Amino acid sequence: VAQRLVRVLCPGCKKEAPVEQDDAVTAEVRKTVSLDLGLPLSEVRIYKGQGCPSCNDSGFLGRTAIYEILLVDSVIKELIVKKATAGQIKKIAVGRGMKTLRQDGWRKVIEGVTSIDEVVRVTQAEEFSVAEGPASRPHEPSEEPARIAVPSSGKRAYVRLEGRVNIRYKVFKSLDELTRRGFKPENLSVTANISGGGLLFFGSEPIQVSSVVELDLELPDGPDPISCLAKVVRVEEIDPEKKYHIAAYFLDITSADKSRINKFVLE
């Protein structure tokens, strides 16, 4: 069982956001919720707290939990015994009916319990991007870069660029263990997509989730790479090439470097 706490919308001032007032980000989220829950788009309702004396003008009052429950049946047990990756196990479990944290969060969003921002905030590590549903498959970046607005924690939104940027990465946490297993401490790679909040890159070997990696991003807008730390939040094997998609979000990136990435993505 995985559990995350989300703030509850204040019952005294929450109101449904009219579809006609959607901005581009909210419209994209409605589509994602519709696909993730298998509901018609017309049934996806989004509520927002307006702020009132009862909630001290915050729009929230109290907390509740969202859950993800993995039933370890004979199929899942066999995968564990065979040392399948976490991504493989999760894919099979979702195919067998498991509801992810984000799906449970989306359900509470359309029921008016909590907000989009809250669900994105607490499931950032598990899902990384609201533009990718639980059943989506990794893919090579297309010829034409795609830019998608992705809500981050809080009310900001980062635009993600689907495309290649050269990077160099080094495992910072549990490096000794990985080295003993024969993994290279330094690797050259390219991104699958990148935003001001994090990136998805290709790896030839898996990296332990929650590890911290040291990154050098070689953006084409200048000679100096961007150096920062990032936390690995998802690792998924790509068949049949036996490569891996590694998702990580930035930990200590400076405001100037984040602005540089955002400018590169938007241009």
User: Structural class of the helix and strand makeup?
Assistant: alpha+beta
Major sheet: arrangement of strands: 7-8-9-12-11-10
Say how many strands there are. 12
Whole-angstrom Rg: 20 Å
Question: How widely separated are the two ends?
Answer: 42 Å
> Helix coverage percent of residues?
25-40%
Order of helices and strands: EEHEEHHHHHEEEHEEEEEH
| Total count of helical runs of at least 4 residues | 8
Shape estimate? globular
- What's the overall average pLDDT, rounded? 76
Protein model, in words:
It is a single chain. A hairpin with a 3-residue loop joins β8 (186-194) and β9. This protein is 27% helix and 31% strand. Mean pLDDT is 76; it is low at 127-157. It starts with a strand and ends with a helix. A 6-stranded antiparallel beta barrel has the order 7-8-9-12-11-10. Strands 1-4 form a two-stranded antiparallel ribbon. The protein has a two-stranded antiparallel ribbon with strand order 2-3. It has 267 residues and is an alpha+beta fold.
Q: What's the topology here?
A:
Layout: E1 2-9, E2 14-16, H1 24-37, E3 47-49, E4 60-68, H2 74-81, H3 86-95, H4 101-110, H5 116-122, H6 124-127, E5 147-151, E6 157-162, E7 166-171, H7 175-180, E8 186-194, E9 198-203, E10 212-218, E11 226-238, E12 243-250, H8 255-266
Antiparallel strand pairs: 1-4, 2-3, 5-6, 6-8, 7-8, 7-10, 8-9, 9-12, 10-11, 11-12
